[in-house]
Structures are given as structure tokens and as C-alpha cells.
Amino acid sequence: MSKSLLPIQQGGHAYRPAKKSDTWKRVKENKSIYLFIAPFFILFAIFGLFPIIFSLFLSLHVWDGLSPMKYVGLKNFELLITDTEFWDSVKNTFIIWFESTVPMLFFALIIAFFLNSAFVKLKGFWRFTFFLPNITSIVAEAVLFSAFFNTKFGILNFFLGKFGIHAIDWLDVNGWLQVAIAILIIWRWTGYNAIIYLAGLQAIPTDLYEAARIDGASTVQIFFRITIPLLRPIIFFTVIMSTIGGMQIFTEPQILTNGTGGPGLGGNTMVLYLYNQAFSNHLFGYGSAIGWALFIIILVFSLLNSWVVQRIAKQ
């Protein structure tokens, strides 16, 4: 007889695979436990799983929300490939992501480093201050910043005028509009990432810093030779999360441009374009196709970003 057919002995008894009846019996015996965890799975199925499946189904149809659905196959995706406005929104999203993510993570790392320093006083106050923008309503922040960036009456142009600099059309010129959106993102998320970095810094043994100072290492050398290498897993996490979040920018450009993307459509990001197509133009099938294209772009870009960060970390 083949050895693969011999029963597996466990504790002197032959092991036999559990039957479906045995599994159902155990479910009945522990039904109270399953009842406690059931609400999560029910809500996830209704508000998470079903919309995902339905959006894939919807992407194969033309539907305005009222008329009967019309099956069109992959025509929505074919239209997407040739849609120049969609690809412009992809370009805008990547530009805003780069302009916001790179300085945001850099400032967050510097802030965390100083908050972890011994000479900084009132650390609890500064942690709360830096984290406050993240728990403030993003709509309120966007409305406030739209007043700051106003061409004629904005605070930023007022101070620029004091230095003899001509007023900037922050919300009317594509390049400046993207910078304005990036500044708002930096303002909101720098403190959040700084707290994450601070947690990573506090996990680094202080003995390493003391040994480096005894050897005569400067603060800059300690930062780049000890802090950065040991924070690589944390940096990798923040880069990936910032990439996923940066590709889904919506509220900031939606408020700053009143949902239009700006006069030159420089603030027309992928999610804002999806929203306008689905809920303004009532092209729900095409909007679903944009959503799945967005998912693929985020997945590919996140994997690429992960590969680049890991290659840099190995050097």
C-alpha cells in the first residue's frame, strides 16, 4: 500500500479529515461566537463586497441610474483608453502626488526627529499641535485654504505683496493650482506621518545613539547612519500608504475648484474625474470603468514603488 494512503497517527489515533457534517456540528456548538462576529461580515458584505462586485458588473453596461441597463461589454474600457481627459487626470494626480508626498514625508521625518530629541520641551503639546490638522474636518480646511489662495484677497498674496512679489493666480493656473493642492495635503498629513515616525524612533535603542556620540558622531551623521537605516520599514510603510492615498485625492481639489478641476483642469484628479462622470454626467457604467482603471493604476504603481524602495533599502 502506498505510504500516502496510510493513516496519520496522532496521539495513538488515526487522523481522519473532518467531514462537512462535523464542521456544521462545530458551528452549531459555537453559534454564540459566530453571532458576535457576524455583524462585521454582514456589513462588509453589504457595504464592501457587494459594491465591488456590482461596480465590475456596472462597468460592462451603460446606465444613467434611471433607465434600464444596456450591456456594452468592454466598450467603456475602450473609451477609457482613448479618453484624453482621463489621461490628463492621471497626469495631474501623479504631479500632485509627487509635489505633496516627497516634502511631506521629509518634513514628517525631521519633525519626528526633533520631537524625539531630549532638548525639546512640551513634547505632548507639540505632538497634539502637529497631529491636529489630521483630525480637523478636511472640508473646513479646504474652505479655509481657498480663502488663503484667493488671488485678490488671499493672505498668501497679501504677504507676497509686502515683499514686492506680484500676486499669484493660485487657483486659475494649472501649475500653481497643483502646488496649492499639494500644500493642503502636506498641511494635513505631515503630522500624521510624523507621529508614525516618532513611534519608530522611540523603538530604536538609545544605546546606539550614546555609542555614536562617544565615538564623536555628529547629529547629522547619527541621523543618516543610524536613524534612517533603522527606520526603513517605517519609511517603506509610509511611502506605500502615501502612494495609495495620493492616488485617491478628491476632497482637496473638489473644494478648491468647486468640483470643476479648475479653469485649465489642472486640479482634475482621477477620483474627481470619476465623480464628475458618474454623479454629474450620470454615466455610472463609465464611472465604474474609471474606478477599476484607478484600482489597476494604484496596484501597479504601489508595486513599482515598493520595488524601488526595497532596492534603495538594500544599498
Quick structural overview:
With about 325 residues, this protein is mainly α.
Please explain how this structure is put together.
There is one protein chain. This protein has 315 residues and is mainly α. The chain has one domain (78-314): MetI-like fold. Helix content is 70%, strand content 3%. It is built from 14 helices and four strands. It has helices at residues 20-29, 31-58, 75-81, 84-115, 123-135, 138-148, 155-162, 174-202, 206-214, 219-230, 232-246, 251-256, 270-280, 284-314, and strands at 8-10, 13-15, 61-62, 70-71. A two-stranded antiparallel ribbon has the order 1-2. Helix 4 (84-115) runs parallel beside helix 8 (174-202), helix 5 (123-135) packs across helix 8 and helix 11 runs antiparallel to helix 14. The longest helix is centred in the first third of the chain and has 32 residues, at 84-115. The chain is globular, with a radius of gyration of 26 Å. The chain starts with 7 loop residues before the first strand and ends with a helix.
Give the SSE layout.
Blueprint: E1 8-10, E2 13-15, H1 20-29, H2 31-58, E3 61-62, E4 70-71, H3 75-81, H4 84-115, H5 123-135, H6 138-148, H7 155-162, H8 174-202, H9 206-214, H10 219-230, H11 232-246, H12 251-256, H13 270-280, H14 284-314
Antiparallel strand pairs: 1-2, 3-4
Helix pairs in contact: 3-14, 4-8, 4-11, 5-8, 11-14, 13-14
Give the count of structural domains.
Answer: 1
Number of helices: 14
Low-confidence stretches: 1-12
Say what the CATH topology is.
MetI-like fold
Q: Percent of residues in helical segments?
A: over 70%
> What order do the helices and strands follow?
EEHHEEHHHHHHHHHHHH
Query: Tally of extended strands?
Result: 4
User: What amount of the residues lies in strands?
Assistant: under 5%
Give the class from helix and strand content and strand pairing: mainly alpha
Distance between the termini: 54 Å
Broad shape? globular
Please tell me the CATH architecture by its name.
Orthogonal Bundle
Evaluate the radius of gyration: 26 Å
The CATH homologous superfamily name equals MetI-like
